[in-house]
Amino acid sequence: MAPKSPKLSITCHKCGYDGNSITAIRCDLCKQPLELNNASTRNSASNSKKNTRYRPHLSGTWLALVSIVSLLLGGSLFFWRSQTISNRSLQWLGDKGNSTEMTLLGYSTFRSDRFRQVLKEFKIEARYEDEFNQAQRARLLNAGKADFLVTTLDQFLKQKPQGKIVGLIDYTMGGDAIVLNTKRYPSLKSLKALNQLVQQRRSQNQLGITFAEDTPSEYLALLLDAKFEAFRLLDFQTIKVVDAADAWKQLQSNPNVAAAILWEPFVTQARQQGYTVVLSSQDTPGAIVDVIVAADRVIQSQPEKISAFLEAYYRLIDTSTSDRLVLQNQIARDGNLSPSDATSVMQGIKFFTSIEAKNWMRDGTLEKRINSTAAVLTLTGRMKQVPQTPQNLFTFQFLNRAVSNTQKLISSIRADNPELADKLMGGATNVTNSGIEGGQIPIASNLGNLQVQGEIEFQFGSATLTWRGKQTLDRLAKKIAEFNSQTVAVRVIGHTSRKGLANLNQKLSQQRAQEVVNYLKQRGLPHKTIAVGKGFSQLRAGISPYDNRNQRTEIQLLRLRS
After folding, report:
1. CA-CA distance, 490 to 520, in Å (whole number)?
2. How buried is 477 (Cβ within 10 angstroms: 0-12 exposed, 13-18 middle, 19+ buried)?
3. How far is 320 from 28, CA to CA, in rounded Å?
4. CA-wise closest residue to 114 among 26, 2, 21
């Protein structure tokens, strides 16, 4: 038998983490002082190399996570490939991004010997290759040339690889946003203003919108198209680029570009330079989710490899949770970013712990996200229909070992560091709204009107909702629930036709708007809401003022002042 490799790390007796450097004084994870014994002292490496078992040391948790952050910065996705040799061999594929930021932030790390070392702890040999095309990634997985892929949830549903979601990586919370070219068009402050400008320019050159193709930016564009009345991709000249750096350049230099969809750090840079961020993934948390997909054949033939990979990955996540500053500094160095840009990147991301990932899969959250994402893709023509059995698209069975490790860690540090223990549990960080009433809502801007599927119908001459009107509001409540109640409020506006007296129509429109607000609250929506009656003061153009089509209810989303 070959001699054991010398151990180059120290196991913490407090939390059990065994990746501490032999020069460390305190544990990298729980920050408690390290105790030395005869199996792991700093001197034992030289005194008893032949008789002591050692573990390769991973120099910093940033190693894997910097690679994951590149998913958001460059729209990057990765694959893994295994073969049955003496140990398990892994082929790692990513994209061939042209952006300097993409290469520096992600792929140099995947190619590095240090990343391979952490996989070797689980007897996995790694080899890295590049692939950018989303459809080709799915074909490689299907053809047996890759065993795992990392992708966004929308691309998983769109490309339909022959595999299941086995782990969750992160979701963006402000890392992606639609930015309006306010510097060139000062009136651009909302989606409604963008729509008005588009209509005004119909006789001239078509205005442009730019975003990185097959990335979260494109999905955010589809989401806007599916949910807002005043946003239609077909109204724009679509300028698809490789990554957000190119889209940012287009927004600054191309006078025909009215909007761009960017990711950090360009979102923050745009805001600082006077552009308007109209909607971001902070307003729709969970809309953009990165997932780990294992091939069906690997699930059947090598389930232990999947568990080992997830155990290794989430161990690094647990470590990083205790000190994000280390990762942030490493991102700044590897990506050639300023400290403020690296901060913007990190603030726009929420990483899943193993416990949170499993909870999403068990409590129905992931199933809801699949249904919502598939609905956007279906409404915009990217899918034929919503999956009939979304629960068959994922499994949490391979997370058990990772979850068990995290639970043990939480138990060991709960008394000394309850805040870190809560973070490892994946608890929500947002605070529930305080229930501010309509007139007190601190409105910053009007985001735009939601598309209403169906009719918000009332009984004739009254503010009583019909059965069909309630069905419409039930669907609408689910749509509103996907928006962040901490950043988005709801305004319900009632309108009537010109039939009857002005004061009676004003009163009826207010009552109907309030009835809609009450119904939405009964459905458990936590958002701040306001009811506004307009009577017949805002009649539809092009039809008779007495036409019943003037009787309508608008649902506006409002950005709250921070």
Report:
1. 10
2. middle
3. 9
4. 21
Per the structure block, which two tokens stand in for 338?
């300023």
Together in a domain, 156 and 246? no
**Interacting residues of 109 by C-beta distance below 8 A, sequence separation 6+:** 63, 64, 66, 67, 115, 334
State pTM to two decimals.
Answer: 0.78
Domain count, the chain: 4
- The secondary structure of the chain in percent helix, strand, coil, rounded to multiples of 5, reads 40, 20, 40
Q: Which amino acid is at 96?
A: K
User: 530 - beta bridge partners?
Assistant: 491
CA distances from 79 to 76, 248, 441 (A): 10, 28, 47
Extract the tokens encoding 226.
């599916």
Residue 3 DSSP symbol: P
In this structure, the answer to whether residues 307 and 383 fall within a common structural domain is yes
* Omega of the bond leading into 265 within 30 degrees of 0 (cis): yes
Tell me which of 375, 395, 425 is where a domain ends: 425
- Between CA 466 and CA 553 the distance in angstroms is 14
pLDDT in tens, the chain (562 residues): 444 434 445 677 666 666 665 445 566 666 666 654 433 333 333 333 333 322 223 333 333 333 333 333 333 334 444 333 223 455 544 443 333 232 223 233 345 566 667 778 877 776 666 677 888 889 988 998 888 888 899 999 999 999 999 999 888 888 899 999 999 999 998 888 999 999 888 777 789 999 999 889 999 999 999 999 989 999 999 999 988 999 999 999 999 999 999 998 899 999 999 999 999 999 998 899 989 999 999 999 999 989 988 888 888 788 777 777 766 776 677 667 788 887 777 777 888 999 999 999 999 999 999 999 999 999 999 999 999 999 999 999 999 999 999 999 888 888 888 888 888 887 644 433 433 444 456 776 788 899 998 899 999 999 999 999 999 999 999 999 999 999 999 999 999 999 999 999 999 999 999 999 999 999 999 999 999 999 999 999 999 999 999 999 999 999 887 6
Residue 312: CATH number of its domain:
3.40.190.10
How far apart, in whole angstroms, are the C-alpha atoms of residue 34 and residue 267? 42
Q: What is d(CA 15, CA 408) in angstroms, rounded to the nearest whole number?
A: 8
**Nearest one of 549, 551, 561, 556 to 532, comparing CA atoms:** 556
With respect to residue 432, please indicate whether it lies within any of the assigned structural domains: no
Do the beta carbons of residue 168 and residue 289 sit within 8 Å? yes
- Whether 24 is in a domain gets the answer yes
Range of the domain at 47: 1-57
Whether 169 and 208 share a structural domain: no
268 in the same domain as 199 = yes
Edge-first strand listing for the sheet containing 349-351: 124-130, 88-94, 78-84, 148-152, 289-295, 163-172, 349-351
Please report, as a single letter, which amino acid is at residue 57: H
Rounded Cα–Cα distance for residues 289 and 68 (Å): 12
For 219, the token pair is 């999905």
- Are 256 and 370 found together in one domain? no
